[in-house]
């Protein structure tokens, strides 16, 4: 009997057009998932300009919840969230039965399979709060050797395009400091927006370098192969779902942004 094609929704955490979305889709080239599974990328309708404050994180959670709220009803078999902040993951797990995979916690957990201590490479210091939160939730603060920033403001749409000569050497220097000075045995790229640097860095370093976006794709595939999803004992369904209200707020926010464009 012919297998049904499995569909995975990848939620991109910023509103964007096709050209910018293609830079996110390029992450697919870093992992071989084989036949029988396809990935569909969807930008959020609303959201913050960047993930740099608690204000931004509240908007991020909502925007990703709004984008993935109907994923299961739309025929998707799993959801991947394209941000190391893991924004919206807990909320979507409470309303969906299909696997919801986010890169922050899963990168850290996989790093523990590969070594004792890991470091996180980040573009700027404002991202530190994202990892600190997840490390605390996992009780893994003692496993993080360091978080090193290169002090470059990220571009969530153009990513690293046109800045390779500037950014790649800075990342390599920070990575070597993580290894030589901090004792890291595994490195994690601090954002899916940094995926274009992965191969270049990995070929110049002697420790594993985790590329978080493609990792989520593979984990989604594995979860589907094994028939696994998150526990509803941990992420229980709401007693009084407000799906229509969430959709209405998302639509109003999108209309507001369109009027200002």
Keywords:
single chain, 261 residues, alpha/beta, four-stranded parallel β-sheet, 8 strands, globular
Explained architecture:
The protein has 261 residues and is an alpha/beta fold. Helices cover 41% and strands 14% of the residues. The chain has nine helices and eight strands. It has helices spanning 18-25, 54-68, 89-95, 103-114, 128-138, 164-180, 198-202, 212-226, 243-260; strands at 6-12, 37-43, 78-81, 100-101, 118-122, 144-149, 186-189, 209-210. The strands form two sheets. Strands 2-1-3-4 form a four-stranded parallel beta sheet, sandwiched between helices. Strands 6-5-7-8 form a four-stranded parallel beta sheet, with helices on both faces. Helix 3 (89-95) links the parallel strand 3 and strand 4 (100-101). The termini are far apart.
Structural class, by secondary structure, is: alpha/beta
Lateral arrangement of strands in the main beta sheet: 2-1-3-4
Low-confidence stretches: none
The whole-number mean of residue pLDDT values reads 94
Main β sheet profile: 4 strands, parallel
How many distinct helices?
9
Coarse morphology? globular
C-alpha Rg, in Å?
Answer: 18 Å
Cα distance spanning the termini: 50 Å
Can you count the beta strands? 8
Percent of residues in β-strands: 5-15%
Element order, helices and strands?
Answer: EHEHEHEHEHEHEHEHH
> What is the percent of helical residues?
40-55%
